[in-house]
Amino acid sequence: MEPKYINEEDPIANVLNDNGEFLYGMNLAAAYEKFIEWQNKILANFISSNNQNKLLLYFKDEILKEIYVQDATSYEIVSFNLKNENSVFDNLEEIITVFSKRNCFNNDGSLNFSNYKFIEYDFTSIEEEIEKIILPGKKCFKWDNQKFVTYGFEGYRGKNSTVIIDFIHKYNHFSLKKNERQILFNFSKEKRDLKYFMFSLQLLIFYLINENYQSECSIKTIIEDKENYINIGEECIDFFKNNPDFKLNTLISIFEFIELLCYPQILENVNEEYKIDIQQEEINKINQYFNNNHEILISKMLILPAVRKFISRFLGGKREEKEIKESENLLYFLQSKEEFWPKDIFHNPKFDVEFENLFNSFSINVNKAINFYEVLGGNKLEMENEENLFNE
What angle separates helix 195-208 from helix 163-170, to the nearest 10 degrees? Predict the structure, then answer.
């Protein structure tokens, strides 16, 4: 199946649960918030009403096993329909009638007509009967926790922001060999549009973070063994089928290479608020720092891909919600993200010292990240560097 492009006019935009785009799927998210509130308040009232109720204690542990609201089955959602598989009654009136009596008899069994209209209710039994009908299988919903749609260029935002570094820590990670980079480069020349290939690689990374494959396992084998709901694109399947020697321990390097090639398309999906130009005075400070410090650890060619990775993973997408404030210092994010850097650089004792020097030399806000990347040489310089590696 071909990936679907969703625009504002597409009806499906209104039914994909979204926490970033005003209106559209955000309306659905707001409805889910209400569902969560209603379900949890009802169940909380049951639980807190009588802690000594043995029947309630039987249900309590199951009720407190929180689930995502979107994962709830009809059996797990509270309903006041008292005519269900747990009930022998049709309605509340029948339950009340069964567990009530007229208090109109004297001790000798004769009628006391003065109390004939007085009805005595067994509230405990009524409550327990309702609990037996309503509570089986019910669960609380996770507060402030829904599953939201993730669009292609927003894969590493929000709760997914640590996926790559978690993946690197879980599986051994190696750089691509020259012949492997050549295979990928040749593949890229045959394709006009690599973004769907990149999205498939993202999906594989998300899938594998919860699996336990050996780092030496072939990516081809992993794709063949994956669950059916993991919808990897045909282009990606064919590539690894034709190149079975690529191992899991190179998946991040493959992704990062394709991510580099997709930068122009990623840039098209960044909001204009993040495309502010840097003042010339600040540009002069940047150039002075990198041109006059020849012995530095963090060179222009090292910080360049780090800036691009930040743009690709945290600024991509057209959502109105701003996850990272435009006024925050970009250098802070570059320093804190281990996955942006070669391992030996990030763990070098000089790394934090040089970042202190960077902080003291110039200041770059997040909304100037794209222009900063261009001032450093941009995608053109990175691609020239790649071609030089092939020619060595």
Answer: 60
Is the pTM value of this prediction over 0.85? no
Residue finishing a domain among 261, 280, 297: 261
Residue 152, classified by CB atoms within 10 Å of its CB into exposed (0-12), middle (13-18) or buried (19+), is: buried
Q: Please, which residues have CB within 8 angstroms of residue 243's CB and are 6 or more apart in sequence?
A: 183, 220
**DSSP code at position 299:** -
Pick the last residue of a domain from 91, 114, 149: 149
pLDDT 10s digits, 227-247? 877 788 888 999 999 999 999
Residues 334, 306 contacting (CB under 8 angstroms): yes
pLDDT of residue 260: 92
b/e burial code for range 378-387 (CB count within 10 A of at least 16 → b): bbeebeeeee
Nearest C-alpha neighbor of 245 from the set 284, 219, 208, 273: 219
The distance from CA 249 to its chain's CA centroid, rounded to whole angstroms, is 23
For residues 158 and 97, state if they share a domain. no
> Does 2 lie in the same domain as 52?
yes
Q: Angle of helix 195-208 relative to helix 251-261, nearest 10 degrees? A: 150
Q: Tell me, what's the pLDDT at 77?
A: 82
- State yes or no: pLDDT of 110 exceeds 70: no
Q: Residue 299 falls within a domain, yes or no? A: yes
Look at residue 38 and give its three-state secondary structure: helix
Which domain range does residue 37 map to? Answer: 1-149
- The answer to whether residues 257 and 320 belong to one domain is no
Dihedral, CA of residue 60, residue 66, residue 72 and residue 77, to nearest 10:
40
User: Bigger pLDDT: 389 or 220?
Assistant: 220
SS3 270: strand
Mean of per-residue pLDDT scores for the chain: 80
**pLDDT tens, position by position, 152-167:** 444 444 555 678 888 8
Whether residues 133 and 255 share a domain: the answer is no
Q: How many domains does the chain have?
A: 3
What's the pLDDT at 162?
A: 75
Determine the longest span between alpha carbons in the chain, in angstroms.
111
On whether residue 139 sits in a domain, the answer given is yes
